[in-house]
Recover the amino acids of this structure.
């Protein structure tokens, strides 16, 4: 059984940098290398950014980031109690004709080893992402 | 942790020089957007963004750059991303934006 | 009404540095100066260290750090569900004849503007500390 | 974020030189304690701790230093804290430990 750590933050842009620093500190403590720490940090920040922009929570509603850690991996869940959305409908971005939006989830999937999106309309969204320590799987 | 920007117009090259220092994310991307819009309203021409001291950019920031690029492309102008750090290069490669912007250094 | 942010961490020494970084990030975002950020960081870390050493919680019991922020101040509560203790019995350290222990609470009181200790035997301990932005009060 | 230590015995001064780099807290203080105990078991003499690159010390770390000092005082020896950063000086002042240890620089 591993350790768990969680943070609850306001749905406001200015707190994403706090989460980035916390995430880096956790990943670095676990022994991830510099590039992996950066990957995890970016992925978590993108998920928080989505919770803030898209969940439609009130700014003083907090949302949660949960970190589960063991010797092999970190599992992070970013969870909001907002609108939710049809995640099956999310399309991969067309890299040959970029748009202003639609990159966040794609970046998360590129940087993490496993990503699971769960969203219930009216209830909220959880994105769960895993990164393994050591050799890439 | 914030974003500082310096902008300068080089008449002989007909080019905007923009230096970005710090972090471009959901909190600071709007200021970048406003800055770029102001520049392009003044002169719709190439922008060279010096990223030597840019530590971080997220999808919000990339979206701002893509928006500016779209506007420039209409006049056949471009955005040059100069000296990005490895973490930022990685993001540009993953998203294919390295093929859309001009990357230097 | 201000923002609130909370963290729940395992009762383990290796997580105190994560809390230090998070605390610094929050205090710096609020506009505290470098010395104040350091004061807040040290005080929170001392409170966490006490929760880990003295509360007698199991290592996989988490404890909480709650940050309340507004334009004027930060109020931080470090809360464990451990043994508790008789806080009236805590003596100021004798600075002329230092001992190995007994400095933590004294340091917290020196660095923060207001400190309130509440402890219930068998239920746990909460230390609440406030630091004001701007001129010292 | 961790603690690195280098130790060296200077025979001509009959003094231990200890360099501490990083952070001394509840997580790392035990390693400092063991290191100091080993030194004093070998030679119970003055210790000069170079703190130039020490970023942080907490009450646990100060406790370790006080413990070592008590042992040294029995032989009329001392601990010299050299070049502490401002945040660490502040803590030494608040706790009155600046009057117990010898502070240099
Ligand atoms: N937490 C969330 N709550 C509601 N909708 C979300 C959430 N996260 C993502 N979405 C939806 O998924 C879409 C794609 O997200 P993303 O790939 O991050 O790109 P972008 O944020 O730029 O639109 C968003 O436009 C939004 O409709
Ligand atoms: N969270 C806590 N749970 C139980 N007891 C505590 C807690 N915090 C402090 N104490 C008690 O108060 C005493 C004084 O704490 P402190 O001033 O931090 O010094 P030290 O930790 O070095 O003993 C401790 O020895 C302990 O008995």
């Amino acid at each position: 059984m591993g350790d768990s750590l969680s943070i609850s933050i306001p749905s406001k842009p200015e707190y994403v940098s706090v989460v980035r620093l916390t995430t880096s500190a956790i990943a670095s403590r676990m022994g991830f290398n510099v590039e992996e720490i950066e990957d995890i940090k970016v992925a978590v920040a993108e998920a928080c950014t989505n919770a803030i922009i898209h969940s439609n929570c009130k700014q003083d509603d907090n949302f949660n980031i949960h970190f589960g850690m063991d010797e092999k991996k970190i599992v992070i869940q970013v969870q909001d109690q907002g609108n939710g959305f049809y995640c099956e409908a999310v399309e991969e971005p067309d890299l040959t004709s970029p748009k202003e939006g639609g990159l966040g989830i794609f970046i998360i999937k590129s940087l993490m080893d496993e990503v699971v999106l769960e969203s219930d309309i009216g209830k909220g969204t959880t994105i769960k992402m895993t990164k393994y320590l050591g050799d890439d799987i | 942790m914030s974003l500082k920007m310096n902008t300068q117009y080089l008449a002989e090259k007909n080019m905007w020089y923009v230096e970005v220092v710090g972090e471009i994310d959901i909190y600071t991307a709007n200021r970048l957007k406003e800055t770029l819009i102001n520049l392009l309203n003044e002169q719709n021409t190439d922008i060279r963004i010096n990223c030597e001291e840019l530590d971080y950019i997220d999808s919000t920031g990339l979206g701002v750059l893509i928006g500016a690029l779209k506007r420039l492309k209409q006049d056949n102008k471009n955005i040059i991303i100069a000296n990005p750090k490895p973490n930022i290069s990685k993001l540009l490669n993953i998203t294919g934006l390295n093929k859309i912007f001009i990357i230097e250094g």
